[in-house]
Design goal:
Elements: H1 5-24, E1 33-39, E2 44-51, H2 54-59, E3 71-81, E4 84-86, E5 94-99, E6 105-112, E7 122-124, E8 129-136, H3 139-142, E9 151-154
Parallel strand pairs: 2-3
Antiparallel strand pairs: 1-2, 1-9, 3-8, 4-7, 5-6, 5-8
């Protein structure tokens, strides 16, 4: 069938708008690098996504409705600084660990509540850190995390 030109253009415009809206939907999955962390004293391993760009830092775990018990997100920064975090559009409560450049736990926040409003509180590390790890709320208590605990990054082996 030979459609009039105005209907073809309208169809193209609708398809383009749908594609743009799909890209703006923060619930769409996105890819980040992954690695595994070992909590040395506890012998606990976590599979974590690595956020190492400004875009990944800003997005974090936004719009996630769940996080596996053995999962998290490791924020990797280029320098040591007091780090801040807010829970804008984060739907699950989290524990947040602040980690030094040498892999030692410096401080943490437990059971940071979700925030879906425009007025979200900011939370900060107690000292300059290089890394921040977000995990499910309750992990710090269950794993008996202590200041000075060592975290080791384990490379993933492709099979």
């Amino acid at each position: 069938m030979n459609w009039p030109r105005r209907f073809k253009c309208l169809g193209l415009a609708i398809a383009l708008m749908m594609a743009i809206n799909a890209c703006k939907d923060t619930r769409q999955p996105y890819r980040t690098a992954q690695t595994r962390l070992l909590f040395e004293r506890q012998g606990i391993r976590l599979q974590v996504e690595v956020a190492d760009t400004e875009k990944a830092w800003a997005r974090g775990l936004m719009q996630r409705e769940e996080l596996a018990a053995d999962a998290g997100m490791l924020f990797v920064f280029p320098d040591d600084a007091v780090r801040g975090v807010w829970m804008k559009n984060t739907l699950i409560p989290l524990d947040i660990l602040f980690i030094s450049a040498t892999g030692e736990v410096v401080s943490w926040l437990q059971h940071v509540p979700p925030c879906v409003s425009d007025d979200c509180e900011a939370y900060y590390s107690s000292k300059p850190v290089r890394y921040m790890l977000e995990v499910n709320a309750g992990f710090i208590r269950r794993a008996s995390i202590r200041r000075g605990d060592k975290i080791i990054v384990e490379p993933l082996h492709k099979e």
